[in-house]
Amino acid sequence: MPRTLRTLLTDDLLARIHDRAPTHDRQNTFPEQDLAELAEAGYLRAFVPEDLGGAGLTLEEVAREQVRLAAAAPATALAINMHLVVTGLAAQLVGRGDDSVAFILREAAAGEVFAFGNSEAGNDLVMFGSRTRAERQDDGGYRFFGTKIFTSLSPVWTRLATFGLDEGHTDGPRLVHAVVGREGTTTKDDWDTLGMRGTQSASTVLDGASARPEHVYRALPPGPSADPFVFALFSVFEILLGAVYTGIGRRALELGAEATRRRRSFKYDGRTYDQDPDIRWKVADAALAQDGAELQVFALARDVDERAPHGSRWFAQLVGLKIRATESAREVVDLALRVSGGGGYSSGSELIRLYRDVLAGIYHPSDDESAHATVATSVLGPLAE
Q: In angstroms, rounded to a whole number, what is the distance separating the alpha carbons of residues 7 and 56?
């Protein structure tokens, strides 16, 4: 029997969010009203179990919703993605019997907004090392000192999932993962970017930000780890990130197709461009890339939900998805621009906004170099020492 996929986002809600997106891009402002309406629709509780008052959606269901939301407003989708990553990894771990992060789901159910504060300037180890200092307190809690970049939801988050290095840990250096509140943090006014402007992913300075003992959920040795937390984080992050950029591609394909039906060719006796074989080829190329991207995002999300036996290939699958999804989206947007004519080059056009937004996919982890190294190792084995 066909599966029933649940949804929280109505077409009317997405239409309102879509209509507000150009203003937030132009004014470089956070979409407060989008957040309020998404919260009212229960979307911030998408991963929260039903017994806590949430929707209890699967990763595949949320990925499908994120594609739709990104097609309406990429920056809104990418901002909300960070809250969904934190709650999604918590839901995955709790569902597998790990209650160390159950407090995240309870607090999300109570209305807390989670941001994701892990990225650091100059830290190409990403999750396997940190420039942030983690200081253990007498009660077992931690204080954090450092600067995190690309902190989406910066004007509105109430909880920040972050990590830092405790060099004095009794078991040797440990990367400590925890959740802190606003106290002891400062948000910089440094978000003025080419695209994804509505995410308001400003830098966050941690100056003694405090995590209570019960909000410290991991202390892992630096470097790669087989801890289930690492897989939960990578799987939810890479899949939902791929979903956002796939949503951009979906909307770009729609806009490109609309333009070909609207534009008329002087060379072809006034016929619309959707009858031009060369233009049809480009639209078909875009559709081929888009179809493949959507299928792989949803399929890998379903594999995570169903605990498919990918074994040692899991991380290669996840980082490969991120690269393929973001690169496919760039290809689709580029082809849509090519069939839409010079009018689409206006700074106010939606396609140009999508073009600026899609470029941000280059900068998310895993980057191209890291992904290729991971995939090569999964196929060829590690480099000889």
A: 11
Q: What is the pLDDT of residues 13-30, one digit of tens each?
A: 999 999 999 999 999 999
pLDDT value of position 2: 64
In a domain, 4, yes or no: no
The pLDDT value given to residue 276: 93
**In Å, how far from its chain's centre is CA 138?**
36
Question: Which alpha helices (H) appear in the chain, and where do they start and end?
Answer: 11-27, 32-40, 59-72, 74-95, 102-109, 228-262, 277-306, 314-340, 350-358, 368-380
Q: Alpha-carbon distance 218 to 140, whole Å?
A: 12
For residues 253 and 315, state if they share a domain: yes
- Say whether both 233 and 344 belong to one domain: yes
The DSSP letter of residue 342 is: G
Any bridge partners for residue 202, and if so which?
151
Report how far residue 294's alpha carbon sits from residue 83's, in angstroms, rounded to the nearest whole number: 22
Q: Structural domain tally of the chain?
A: 3
Considering the domain architecture, whether residues 237 and 209 belong to the same structural domain is answered as no
Query: 26-82: per-residue pLDDT in tens?
Result: 999 999 999 999 999 999 999 999 999 999 999 999 999 999 999 999 999 999 999
**Does the model's pTM come out above 0.85?**
yes
User: Regarding beta strands 159-166 and 114-117, do their DSSP bridges make them parallel or antiparallel, or are they unpaired?
Assistant: parallel
Which residue in the block uniquely carries the two structure tokens 């809600």? 13
**Tokens standing for residue 322:** 């991120």
Helical (H) or strand (E) element with 322: helix 314-340
**Residues 119, 83 within the same domain:** no
Q: Cβ atoms within 10 A of the Cβ of 355, count?
A: 21
CATH number at residue 133: 2.40.110.10
Cβ neighbours of 6 (radius 10 Å): 14
Q: Tell me: the pLDDT tens digits for 190-222?
A: 999 999 999 999 999 999 999 999 999 999 999
CA distance 145 to 209: 7
Same domain, 194 and 125: yes
Average pLDDT over residues 291-301: 98
Name beta bridge partners: 117. Answer: 162
- CATH number, domain with residue 53: 1.10.540.10
User: pLDDT per residue over 306-320, tens digit each?
Assistant: 999 999 999 999 999
CA distance 138 to 316: 40
Q: Which domain holds residue 67?
A: 11-109
